[in-house]
Design goal:
Among the domains are: 83 residues, no CATH class; 75 residues, Roll (SH3 type barrels); 88 residues, Alpha-Beta Plaits (2-Layer Sandwich). A hairpin with a 5-residue loop joins strand 3 and strand 4. With 532 residues, the chain is an alpha+beta fold. It has 17 helices and ten strands. The longest helix has 29 residues. 15% of the residues are buried.
């Protein structure tokens, strides 16, 4: 149709038949979505058009410009243009409706957690400032790393000497200068200030440890650089990052010291950890983590891999554990004591008889006072003030009685009553119960008061009294016990004729046994007087 219309136009160019067919196929392919096929068909169209132009140039055109082939090509082009939209799958109505309905749903439930947003200029300014700060930190880090890796010269020994002078003299000088502002120290002499400096838990006194670590690190690096130039091994060691590794070890040791000093205080003040042993075990674990991490990092800087370090450490730990079972047992005992807390620092405990240590039944020992709980051993102080160091592994197999955690102290008293006064025993028992119930030192509500006749011996009855007194310090407890004992003795004398004293029979003349005495049967057939 289009070709016929073009043919009817005056002066219209006639399109060759093969070119029209190729162009129609290209249009159909483009509408069907196959762009690659369309491109291939376009190439074919241009080639066919060139061939048709050459053939048309050789033969004359038919009269009127319209032939049967041109009409067929025009009909095929029209049908292809009409059928191309039908060949492409159109979206279903349900999918279109879902797409339309999904848009408002997404915007309805889209919550933004950033409630406060900076304006774009301010945000860009903040980002730029953070970038500049990051760049400055990177420059500082690189400068510090470069300075750490800088070689020590022979004349740099003055820095090590000055640092050691600060350790020995500088700390004391600073302490003396600060003492002038203290009311209790400003009038002391130099010798008294030295004694105060050594006896107090001052920061400057603790600072000797970290400063000593830094001094050792500087000495090692100085010897490495100076002697390395003499023995020509500087390239081998420096290539492994020796300087940075030594500084990392020094930093780790300093951090471990700081953790050991300040972490217990933080746990007590900020986290309300009241137990001394629990604070101790948490501090030990933190110190182990810091030291272990610094060793791994230093090993990596020295040139070893982290996997190799962990592997060697695991094998070495296994071998050490097998070779030193007692040490591991004592360390584990200390850890278990710190976690389970059967006793704590400052408490009093009883120990049973052992082949190595005095038991609490010894009058010179009585209650052991726990002075400290360490990694390997625990220090106990007996009644005679003699410190006893006990390995922690002993407490895993030893029965320990914690006296400090008892809630009451028990009274167990025995009174001797004569047989002649046995009729007054019921009234005496009631007097005892009334007195003990009325006493403010006796807890008669939580624990019952027991007063009973428990034995009948040859010359007296035994009246047993059992009561629980409130827990007080040992000196006060003994005073209360003495008062109660004297008052109960007054009640015995009031109800009876007095305490039954032991009765002894003394012969004026010794007995002489007859010759017929049978020692196997322990029978005395005849007893004769003295000198018989």
């Amino acid at each position: 149709m289009f070709a016929a219309r073009a043919a009817r136009l005056p002066g219209a160019a006639v399109v060759p038949r093969d070119a029209r067919l190729a162009r129609s196929r290209r249009v159909v392919a483009r509408r069907a979505g196959d762009r690659s096929a369309a491109r291939r068909l376009g190439t074919t169209t241009r080639a066919a058009a060139a061939g048709d132009d050459l053939r048309d140039a050789r033969r004359p055109s038919p009269i009127g410009g319209i032939t049967a082939g041109k009409a067929a090509a025009s009909a095929a082009l029209a049908l292809g243009a009409f059928a191309a939209p039908l060949a492409m799958p159109a979206p279903s109505a349900h999918a279109a409706a879902s797409a339309v309905a999904a848009a408002p749903a997404a915007s309805k439930y889209n919550f933004d957690p950033n409630l406060i947003r900076l304006p774009e200029p301010a945000k860009r300014a903040v980002d730029a400032g953070m970038d500049r700060l990051s760049d400055e930190l990177c420059h500082v880090t690189e400068a510090v790393k470069t300075q750490m890796n800088d070689d020590w010269d022979v004349e740099d020994v003055w820095l090590i000497l000055l640092w050691n002078l600060a350790i020995t003299k500088g700390r004391r000088a600073i302490f003396g200068a600060l003492a002038k502002f203290e009311e209790s120290d400003k009038d002391k002499t130099a010798e008294e200030l030295d004694d105060a400096f050594e006896s107090r838990d001052h920061f400057l006194r603790w600072l000797a440890g970290p400063m000593g670590v830094v001094s050792n690190a500087m000495t090692v690096l100085y010897l490495n650089d100076v002697l390395g130039r003499v023995f020509k091994f500087e390239g081998f060691i420096d290539g492994m990052g020796f300087d940075l590794g030594v500084y990392v070890l020094a930093f780790g040791a300093t951090c471990a010291m700081a953790v050991g000093r300040y972490l217990p205080r933080v746990l007590e003040t900020k986290f309300a950890v009241a137990s001394v042993s629990l604070r101790s075990v948490l501090t030990r674990m933190a110190e182990v983590v810091v030291v272990f991490a610094s060793i791994i990092k230093a090993g990596v800087l020295f040139g070893a891999s982290a996997k190799a370090i962990l592997g060697v450490g695991s094998v070495g730990g296994l071998a050490f554990g097998l070779a030193s079972k007692e040490i591991i047992s004592n360390v584990m005992g200390g850890t278990i004591i710190s976690v389970l807390r059967p006793f704590d620092v400052g408490e009093n405990i009883f120990l049973q008889q052992s082949g190595q240590f005095r038991s609490s039944s010894d009058p010179s020992v009585a209650e052991y006072n726990v002075r400290s709980i360490g990694w390997y051993s625990t220090v106990l102080v007996a009644k005679d003030t003699k410190p006893v160091t006990v390995p922690n592994g002993l407490f895993l197999t030893q029965t320990v009685i914690n006296v400090s955690r008892q809630t009451h102290r028990v009274f167990v008293l025995n009174f001797r009553v004569r047989y002649e006064d046995r009729k007054h025993v019921p009234a005496l028992i009631q007097d005892f119960k009334q007195y003990l119930t009325a006493s403010e030192a006796i807890d008669s509500e939580a624990h019952p008061i027991r007063v009973n006749v428990t034995a009948n011996n040859a010359d007296h009855l035994v009246l047993n009294v059992e009561a629980h007194a409130y827990k007080v310090d040992l000196t006060t407890h003994y005073e209360i016990k003495s008062t109660v004992l004297m008052d109960l003795m007054d009640l015995v004398e009031r109800r009876t004729g007095g305490v039954a004293y032991p009765t002894e029979i003394k012969l004026e003349h010794p007995l002489v046994l007859s010759e017929g005495y049978d020692s196997t049967k322990n029978v005395l057939p005849v007893a004769v007087g003295a000198n018989a």
